[in-house]
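Lab meeting, action items carried over

1. Structure of the two-component assembly. Owner: GW. Status: complete.
Input record:
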Amino acid sequence: MNPLVIAPVLLPLLAGTLLLLLRGTLSLRVRRGLNLTMVAIQILLATVLLMTVSEGDILVHTLGNWPAPYGIVLVADPLAAWMLLITAILAWFALLFAVRGTDTGSRHFHPLFQLQLFGLNGAFLTGDLFNLFVFFEILLLASYGLLLHGGGARRTRAGLHFVALNLAGSTLFLFAAGTLYGTLGTLNMADLAVKVAAAPPENLGLVRAAGLLLFGVFALKAALIPLHLWLPAAYASTSAPVAALFAIMTKVGAYCLLRVGTLIFGEDAGPVANLYSDWLLTLALITLIVGALGALSATELRRQIAYLVVVSVGLLLTAFGLGTPAAIGAGLYYLAHATFAAAALFLLADIIASGRGASLDRLTPGPAIPRAGLIGGFFFIAAVLIAGLPPLSGFLGKFLVLKAALVDPAWPWAMGLVLTSGLLGMIALTRSGSLLFLRADGRSGATPASAGDLAPIVGLLALCLALTIWAGPILGFAHTAAEQALRPQTYIQVVLGPTTRTEPR
Amino acid sequence: MEALISLIVGVLTACGVYLILRGRTFPLVLGLTLLSYAVNLFLFATGRLAIGLPPIIDPNLAKPVGGYTDPLPQALVLTAIVIGFAMTAFLIMLALKARAELGNDHVDGRPDPGDRA
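Predicted assembly:
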């Protein structure tokens, strides 16, 4: 019904298929151009979608025109559109870095890249729980391919762990979806919200169990404590553009926690209301500290950045766990910032590693990097961003989350742990910065990074700067999205139609 | 029949969990396969167990004779089987690659203290 909603799902699927089929006929140059163009069109689509829903409208596309609880729906609300835009922009810069040569490491990088976007966009747009599972599998299967891209023993080992863990997670997801279908008789998320609120008391235990199973699955994707252990190894061993693209992967889990936590188990869910929020806040705060300690103990730069991603997940989920519009709005702002900043750092780590010869990204004194002043400057900016120091967007996001936390009874914990983790992160980054740039001696003889290599990093850092400068309007939008997520009645009405039919099974 | 199915699902899950906690890739693959069998049976049972009933309702009959069975879980199971099959195939390839590259079939790629190659 509304082609704009389904376009971000169809376009990467078509592009991926095209890139797969035309691998033999088109030269690498043309395929790179085609892929970049396709991702650019996705940025455009996401922007148009964002403009359309920026006032809080919700667009629905019913697949095959089957009416809502029976068919599958795709739903674009401000939250989904925001995630789509972040994904598309991040993907474009990651790809821009990849076409400098990393994409030749295996045969199917370009199709896999598009299929990864297909899965991501679908997961953000779908309004059906089982369909969410299918899109999860698509994005995971593409991510397995991308993670292993380039090969090598270390990558294979990390990939094996990643694949096995996620397969176990998928099984749990199916158990949860099956339990919900068996007790409530629907898989449409809006319909589930209605049915959960009206669930008879004898089914509540099952509904709660299914809800918490889903929580576990999403926590695994989001790398929440104690399910974060896969992340550092996977992110530290894969190629730089893939690690940069994976900065959005943990956010898929966070998005699902927010979506399911507010829509299905939100305020109106009766006896199972706010099923997620208690768990979320506690676990998120522990994640913050464990992530920061990991960053402090890391012996390689990329592993350190991976732990800083865990820290950013902790702060993001702290914001979502607080559950007020102000906190979630701040969280959505921080989400964009954390994604871009982490991606920039991953790309930078690759340039640093290739500039240090045999020392790679190990945090030991080694040869000086060519053009150390420039790269060190970028490292400094990125470190300021990700550690959340003033005056850039990381500080704004963190400050707003803390400000929103003041109304919560647990505010001393939130304040103390967020600030401690910030301090630990800062110490870790200072140590690596001084080791990599100040205590370097001798020449590595590596070719200096060209302007083209640095362009994606500059772009990502500029995006964070833009987030700082236009913080007002962006936060206004994030607030609209948060308000809407917390009041799911509109969402339910738009999806199910004005006459909400709740017939018994 | 319900007791039998739930017993099968339970046993399959227990065996699957035990196997995925082993340290070698072959038991890991087997464990994940058993888990996916368990979840497929479980999904199938969410539509309530029935034998010999049609999954469609005859529009000419005002009331379905003898009831009908829910067609949706069957579609879900079909999807889950296809995805599970693809994932298992991928995992086996990855396990073989890991065996070749890491030199042994331990999930962490390190040989046991006992076996010296």
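2. GW to write a short summary for the group page. Key points so far: The radius of gyration of chain B is 20 Å. Chain B is about 60% helix and 0% strand.
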